[in-house]
């Protein structure tokens, strides 16, 4: 039985909420991501896996800080000490997208340590594990610098190049799959955008128009027993009805409030000698995100209403966002200081957002300037229902004032 951990999208450096930890001097959100990643590594060591597969996006940016690098390296060195090989595939956040420049993960391939495999170009990687040989076809984030472009495409438009890259990735996977021994367990691992994948949170607001897109049918091909993917933050199996799972492990921690209802984690995968695959999604310990929505009314004091709503939620150690809807034609009288004090048990109060209903102004009736004043006034007051009982009197007085 071949056993391994499939994890991706650790994104060390996400610090959009939280505070500086008083004991370490490190941002609390960075510590949250480290805690989740260490949980993945604890599981790998406890289950004595054959290898640890990381499918890209180690950091938030291509230029991680020394602190972020130190914490990430400390995590992976625990696997080295446990004699667990680590396969690292370069993701889009790890890739500088410039020819010749090193990725943020290349340092692991240069360390004088056995057991670290950094994949920055498509290749077949055979791993001799303690439970047998396994073949990994590794496909990092596809770019112009990782896939050779023919002269024909050097001057093409961006969308044409993207289409060419997508086709090239499919051809590479097909080519490598035909070279594999069908008797040996095989994994396709990549950092890719699959056409049927579901985005979540901040990903929905991002522009993926230039992402090379791969079809599921290009991935679930023989002899692959499992397709391990990174890039999309929601855990999902894109091939549940068929034998070869196409799995995004998802991110290990919540990135923003768009992901507040999603569980985060990684996958523990087992492939038997008969090439039968089973995988389990294991949840990581994550920071709770609590969004409180309140519809204020005219009968209750606005601040008291909000305070009561906050008490209904578990906000301790959570990242909290409060959204309250004001009644129509009501001024905002919420005491923000009291609301902030009521959230002292929260880890971080992200925002307090009032929502006001915007009154739509009725369209004015168009009239010709050649109309008489009486006709113009008659049309004007016809649209003002509050003056309907005084319409004739108002028109007479207006005409009298005009004549004076």
End-to-end Cα distance, whole Å, is 102 Å
> What helical percentage do the residues reach?
10-25%
Mean pLDDT: 89
Which residue ranges are poorly predicted, with pLDDT under 50 across at least 5 consecutive positions? none
State which percent range the strand residues make up. Answer: 15-25%
Structural class comes to alpha/beta
**Total strands:** 17
What's the shape?
elongated
Taking all Cα atoms into account, the compactness measure Rg is 30 Å
Give the oligomeric state of the chains in this entry, treating copies of one chain as homo and distinct chains as hetero.
single chain
Helix/strand order, N-terminal first: EHEHEHEEEHEEEEEEEEEHEHEHH
Instruction: Please work out how many helical segments DSSP would assign.
Output: 8
Largest sheet, spatial ordering of strands: 4-3-2-1-13-14
Biggest sheet descriptor = 6 strands, mixed
How are the secondary structure elements laid out?
Layout: E1 2-7, H1 28-46, E2 51-54, H2 66-81, E3 86-89, H3 107-110, E4 116-119, E5 123-129, E6 132-139, H4 158-178, E7 186-191, E8 193-194, E9 213-214, E10 226-230, E11 236-237, E12 246-248, E13 265-271, E14 277-283, E15 289-295, H5 302-311, E16 319-325, H6 336-342, E17 348-355, H7 373-382, H8 391-403
Parallel strand pairs: 1-2, 2-3, 3-4, 6-7, 7-10, 8-9, 10-12, 15-16, 16-17
Antiparallel strand pairs: 1-13, 5-6, 11-12, 13-14
